[in-house]
Structures are given as C-alpha cells and as structure tokens.
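Q: I'm writing a short explainer about Regulator of microtubule dynamics protein 3 for a general audience and would like to include a description of its predicted shape. Could you first generate the structure from this sequence?
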Amino acid sequence: MCELTEEGSEKKSYALNGKEEAEAALEKGAENAECHLWYAVLCGQLAEHEGIQRRVQSGFSFKEHVDKAIALQPENPLAHFLLGRWCYQVSHLGWLEKKTATALFESTLSATVQDALQSFLKAEELQPGFSKAGRVYISKCYRELGKNSEARQWMKLALELPDVTNEDSAFQKDLEELEVILGE
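A: Of course. Here's the predicted structure. Afterward I'll give you a sentence or two in plain language.
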C-alpha cells in the first residue's frame, strides 16, 4: 500500500504499520531472512519522511537487517540489490550526514560506488534480469568509475527490460540522461 499511495503522510502511516508488523514477526522468528529484508525495506520507506538524525539511524538499521538477510539467505537477489542501493546512497552522502552519523552514533557510514557495484552485480549474477533499476544502477556505477563502455552496455541491458515496479518506471529519466551522457 505504501508504494501505491501518493500522499506523504499516508505513505508514512503504511510504512510505520508495516514496520511494527515486521518487528513482531522478527520477535517470533529472528532467523527468517524475509522478515529482516522487509524490516529493512520499511526502515528505508520511513527514512524518506524523517529528519537527518532519524534518517541516519534508519540507515544503520537498514544495513544491519539487510546484512542479516544476506547471512541467512545469501542467494537472495533482492537482498544484494538492497545492499547495493544502501552502498550507493551512502557513497553519495554529504558532509553533514556523515558528520551526523559519527557524532550521534559514534560510527561512520562508509561505502563506495565500487561496493555498490559489487552488490548490484551479485544480484544480477544470482538472477539475470532481476531488476531494471538494478541494471540502471550498474550503469551509473560504471559511469562514475569512468568505465563508460561497461556503463553503455548495462544501459542497453536495462532498456531491454520492461518496467515491473514503480521504481523501474521512475528510472526512465535516469536512462534517458545516461543515453545522452554515454551516447547512442
């Protein structure tokens, strides 16, 4: 429901309810990879509606639960895709977010574009064509690493996939920008 609604407070309400349900599920089965995965997703959804301190806190929680999901179910492409997104976003954090994390949580948020790329490639290895958004991220990572030939290849592969999720549709603009930047 969170993905289907447009209104911010309604999205937050659905995400909060979902997170509470996921917490209850984790209390019953902490060894369930899917519970950890969906808890992480809901932390991410809630972070979109929070201030910087809560966003950073949600980021740590997101990473913790994605890591647990991967440890429990290493062949899950969604878990690797989500880790890739986390790494990509952390690699693009500004100075203020990084300093906030260090000051409030005595821990740094650290990830590189290369880390993100490895996670996205792992998801693709586990299930080729898993996600159009994943292929767009792979293209963006390669471009940022100065590997335009590989970026162009993954951009073309992304264009071959249909839009399955709202996120896939949202990446159409990114694909158009990549086409202009990379040529072809």
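A: For your explainer, you could say: The CA atoms of residues 72 and 121 lie 19 Å apart.
Q: Perfect, that's easy to follow.
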